Amino acid sequence: MKLYVRASTQSDVNHLATNLRPEDTEEVLASHGDVKEALQQGLDESEECWTIVVKETGEIAGIYGIVGLEDNLTGIPWLLTAPPITKVCLHFFRLFCRRAAAASRVVFL
Fold first, then answer.
1. CATH number of the domain at 3-102, please?
2. How many Å apart are CA 74 and CA 96, to the nearest integer?
3. End-to-end Cα, the chain, rounded Å
4. Cα(29)–Cα(53) distance, integer angstroms
5. What is the pLDDT of residue 105?
6. pTM, whole model, 2 decimals?
7. How far apart are CA 9 and CA 75, in angstroms?
8. pLDDT tens column, 61-82
9. 3-class SS at 99?
């Protein structure tokens, strides 16, 4: 299956907050305590925030972004996903690597 990526909306955050994969829910509860608050923080604090959509079904597979730090040189990437990510995970990985390589501030260690 294929995917497309679009700018995230409040509606995407609301949807994903109740549809995360169990593994992602567990991680968010351990780090933030509240799924909706963590997603909202990601949307509000990321310079750009993107929603991953399964092209054939219209399902939201995840949301990702990068929260910039005060030094304007570094950032914290984040990604939270729903079960449909399994339909497009390889395609997403390839797309992400191409976008990251094209960004002048991204360095792979």
1. 3.40.630.30
2. 18
3. 30
4. 24
5. 55
6. 0.84
7. 21
8. 999 998 888 887 788 888 999 9
9. helix
Residue type, 77: P
pLDDT of amino acid 77: 85
Q: What whole-number distance in Å separates Cα of residue 44 and Cα of residue 91?
A: 26
> Tokens 């094209």 — which residue?
102
Euclidean distance between CA atoms 73 and 14, whole angstroms: 30
Give, in order, the Cα–Cα distances in Å from 8 to each of 49, 54, 65, 108: 6, 14, 9, 25
From the list 43, 47, 51, the residue with the least C-alpha distance to 5 is 51
Distance CA 50, CA 37 (A): 17
Distance set, CA 67 to CA 41, 72, 73, 103 (Å): 9, 10, 11, 15
Element (H, E) at 62: strand 60-68
For the chain, which ranges sit under pLDDT 50?
none
User: Rounded to whole angstroms, how far apart are CA atoms 89 and 61?
Assistant: 9
